[in-house]
Amino acid sequence: MTGLNSANGNAPRAKDEPFVLPPNTDLAKFRRFLARATSIVEEVNVKVVNSQDDISQEEYMHPSKAHDMYHILEKTHFISSAVVAPRNVPDVQEVMKLANEFEIPVWPFSMGRNVGYGGAAPRVPGSVGIDMGKNMNKVLEVNAESCYALVEPGVCFFDLHEYLEKNNLRDKVWADVPDLGGGSVIGNTLERGVGYTPYGDHWMMHCGMEVVMPDGSLLRTGMGALPNPKADKSKPPHEQEPNESWQLFNYGFGPHNDGIFSQSSFGIVVKMGIWLMPNPGGYQAYMITFPRDEDLEQIVEIIRPLRIAMVLQNVPKLDNVLVSAALEGHRDSYSNSDKPLTEPELDKIAKDLGIGRWNLYGAMYGPEVVRDALWSVIKASFSKVPGAKFYFTQDRPDDVALKTRSNTFQGVPSITELQWVDWLPNGGHLFFAPIAKVTGDDAKAQYELTRRLSEEYGFDFIGAFLVGVREMHHIVCILFDRKDPDSRRRAHALIKVLIAEAANRGWGEYRAHLALMDQIAETYNFNDNAQMKMNETLKNALDPKGILCPGKNGVWPATYKKEDWTLHKP
Ligand code: EUG
After folding, report:
1. Residue 511 falls in the annotated catalytic set
2. Who contacts 43 (Cβ-Cβ below 8 Å, separation ≥6)?
3. Which domain of life is it from (predicted)?
4. Atom of ligand 1 minimally distant from the CA of 193
5. Do 475 and 409 lie in a common domain?
6. Count of domains in the chain?
7. Does position 6 have pLDDT exceeding 80, yes or no?
8. How many CB atoms lie within 10 A of CB 17?
9. pLDDT tens-digit readout, 45-89
10. CA 252, CA 217: separation in Å to the nearest integer?
11. What pLDDT digit, counting tens, does each position of 241-278 carry?
12. Active site residue 251
């Protein structure tokens, strides 16, 4: 295990010496590596992580590229030694080959905005970050007739939306966006992020990828493997005209490989197709408030058949009272107590804001006759919950949460949702994100368990259910004070208990922070860890030196002794 060399105050560091060197790498070798990297990408695209400035950025719009802004371990634990930004696909290939030659681990990221899950930070301290977003940030194509885009890693949801606006394409197509618009389309999709239009499942809606493999070779998946007969073969492969069906049919021929590049360490995605939604020709967002905490079960039972039948057309979001409250205010305006808020306090917040203990946000798409028909079914269904109230955006002109969702649900990105992080001073956040069935029983049981444990560890329960088609992503927002070591420690202890208790009940997480990947990977252990064994076999075959993202999602290459590196020490 690499220690922090002199960040903890031992020998003074040379000017070009990083806080943390890569494993098995002394300063002389690191310097040789950087000189070679510089000759590939040019000096402006190489940065050693060696100054306080490099690790002091804490703003979403100006994220750190070197460490986790919402760290729960020491700030300098998950940290890179240097960040290298390739200018193009051949640079990525050359950097990958160089890393193999030097046996230095690398960790690609797109925008560095994987907030709540580790940001741009690497799993192995001292890895070299590969900043895929800095220079490779083009929308390569939008096809408004067949409704897709082809993008590079540095295209974020704001960029894609802006591209559609600038080219007057919004009347033809919309891009799905998640809560925060600054994330990379590719990065978010590979992490299996979720947005809120009918195209909310980004992984489901991606189509075709170009990938740099750990050995530096380049491939295209799906129909992209079939050459376009019109392609100019004199160009390098990454510039050749792709097959015209690349973004139309995901599967191609033979084993469908895309899955091994998602939440994985098996390749670096340098181009990806994403389906766009045709402009539906009409739109209306709504909010339904439910007065009592106990309404959860009944609400979810009503949601299931409506969502599976696609009467609920989008990914609706069911927020507990504090998600909405935190968007519009700070905790200290409601309570001075450092104990979790009580039932009467929560009821009072709901009353003051004119919202429910649970609030369902959704949208309808299509011409008015279609929306009217859908609304009559939706309204009749949820009216079975006593006290349910129904609002359209225009009924609550001052409601920040509703207004923001109304934009998000029609593909207009923002960063307003980030405001709930300021519920506490110095708010940092960590997500616990188990999958739930769309049943009243499961929702109630997950809510009870996660709320009880959150409160035992001194945190308010702030959570939302995002309804996929046959499951819900239950997002428990663990909000801590990042300047308070005790608050960080409690957040970390809480999520470890949540993961274990959830697994005991058959619940697993869809995505995880760097610090929790090992533990969660170990819960997916059916039949003597058969799936992990296959992942390790693939990892060792594709990346025999274990260079690309060692430890990503709990998959450790053979070159790393797992027992020494795992952060899960039960
Ligand atoms: C949210 C949603 C997520 C996630 C983290 C946060 C929304 C928070 C469905 O995915 O992973 C309110």
Report:
1. yes
2. none
3. Eukaryota
4. 10
5. yes
6. 4
7. no
8. 18
9. 999 999 999 998 889 999 999 999 999 999 899 999 999 999 999
10. 20
11. 999 999 999 999 999 999 999 999 999 999 999 999 99
12. no
Q: What is the pLDDT of residues 16-49, one digit of tens each?
A: 899 999 999 999 999 999 999 999 999 999 999 9
C-alpha span between 357 and 447 (Å, rounded): 13
Residue 258 identity: D
Amino acid at 135: N
Looking at the CA of residue 420, tell me the nearest atom of ligand 1.
12
Q: Which of 117, 199, 286, 391 is catalytic?
A: 117
pLDDT given at position 10: 55
Please report whether residue 2 resides in a domain: no
Strands 389-392 and 283-290: antiparallel
Report which protein residue has its CA nearest ligand 1's atom 1. 475
pLDDT at 496 over 80: yes
DSSP-derived letter for residue 125 is: T
Catalytic residue chosen out of the listed positions 113, 123, 405, 511? 511
Looking at the fold, whether 346 and 483 belong to one and the same domain comes out as yes
Known catalytic membership, residue 117: yes
186 and 318: one domain? no
Chain mean pLDDT for the chain: 96
Residue 475 CA, ligand 1 centroid: distance in Å? 6
3-class SS letters over 395-421: HCCCCHHHHHHHHHCCCCCCCHHHHHH
**Contact indicator for 465, 474 with CB cutoff of 8 Å:** yes
**What's the 547 CA to ligand 1 centre distance in angstroms?**
30
* 201 falls within a domain: yes
Q: Give the pocket of ligand 1 (CB within 6 Å).
A: 116, 179, 193-194, 323, 431, 433, 464, 466, 473, 475, 477, 511
The CA distance from 344 to 340, in Å, is 12
Cα distance between residue 292 and residue 304, in whole Å: 20
Mutate to test the pocket of ligand 1, among 466, 511, 516 (most ligand atoms within 8 A of CB): 466
The CA 344 to ligand 1 mean position distance, Å, reads 27
